[in-house]
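Researcher: Quick sanity check before group meeting.
Model: Go ahead. Protein one:
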Amino acid sequence: MTETVKQQIMAVRDTGEANMLDTRMVQYIANREGFYELVIYIEDHREEYAHFIFTGEDE
């Protein structure tokens, strides 16, 4: 996970608009905000994304 993706996750989280486990809503907000790296990351690395949300660890 790149630093850019982490920053985009935090930016979506800070909106307070979505449960961060609702990946479709997270992707919707990310797309709206121009966070295309995050949209693609969730598509390609769903398990790693969930691990980061639960633990804060990116490995």
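Researcher: Fine. The other one?
Model: Protein two, sequence then structure:
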Amino acid sequence: MDGLIMAGQLLLGLSILVILHELGHFLAARAFGIKVEKFYLFFDAWGFKLFSFKVGDTEYGVGWLPLGGYVKISGMIDESMDTEQMAAPAQPWEFRSKPAWQRLIVMLGGIIVNIVVGIFIFWMMAFKYGDTFIPNDKLAYGISPGIVGKQMGLQPGDKILAVNGQKLIYLDEIMSSKVLLNNTKLTISRNGETKDLRVPESVLDSISKYKMKAFIGPRLVAKKIDSVITPKDLTPKPSILDKLKALFVKPKPVVVETPAFDAGFKKGDSILSVNGKPAKFHDQITTEVSANPGKKIAVVVLRGAEQLTLMPKVSKDGVLAINIPPVKPAMVTINYGFFEAFSVGMDKGWTSFTDNAKGIWKMITGKLSARNISSPIGIAGAYGSEFDWERFWGLTGLISMALAFMNLLPIPALDGGHVVFLIIEMIKGKPLSDKFMERAQIVGFVILLCLMVFAFGNDILKKFGI
């Protein structure tokens, strides 16, 4: 069920963006009197389609192959590879009959719409939800670094004072692209001493690999144990089939690991130390427990006025199966007016667009692994297994800006490839030959196919922890 929810969100988000992208090409073409023969969501490869209908000169439909969409513009060498049409004399309503500057606008139409859509989404989100931050000056106990934070040289309890010499106002800024993509200098306070740390350029590779474990958050004080998981909580309920089988065959008992329950932990206990190490903070407890999978550990708890030493055996997964809610810092929400939110949306849109450019450049120069390229499998996982409008639109806005940038790349078969050829034509004063355009289109398809296979391979290998 979780997979269906993730796939459904991905399909909805991409469908919206693909339709609007192709609408940009469609409207620009029609504005210059160019005939558009087809407008399709998904591809009707080999002539197969889910449904279609015709209005005027244009056939609208949904194909069966969910790898984007397209508009078939008359008199243009594109995905259809319609060489027969190109062999006939040019007609006044065809793409090839129009001035180069008009054709350039048609090719940029989809990219422009994706940029506008991305900015609009960020604008509306800023207006509706505002921005919620953790004030850096409210972190009395400093930060709790994850795997990547530790690779950056950060330690539990560090207080981050400045980023590139500028005072850090909100902790959330640490996970922004301006820190992660720019070889940033962090100024920290550790045990009363001020130090400078340099964010390594490989940090994004680690974030891609470790995901949430990579993030830096506030250091949180552990409260009293809120609940202890019992065998009853974890024992699966028998199905009707299981009950029928039990009439004929005696079922084997289900063995469930509940180390905290078995060791005598109770709701309301306060953990004081683990293996002789202080455990005031949430990260101190989880770090020590996860470091001892399958082993017994000594945990001192305060129960009322009495101190007790319990000896649970940590599960093979490195957990104790107890819930210790942390004391979270106060959050600050900034609300924006309608027009004020526009500038916030513009800033987020531009940042997202330039982040894609920086990321691609780092891959080209070898400073960032190409393993960060994701397919629809990875994108679906980012949407999550629960539908949340704020997360859905936020991610869809990011994808819209990513589509705009990717389509601008000078790869034949992408809009950016056509743009490059049109610019060359405008400089030369005459168009490139149809034969060259056909071959370039084929080369572009091969490149895109290789990228697609690589991206899917990446995500499949990640699923297996490779």
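Researcher: One line on it for the slide.
Model: The chain has a mean pLDDT of 84.
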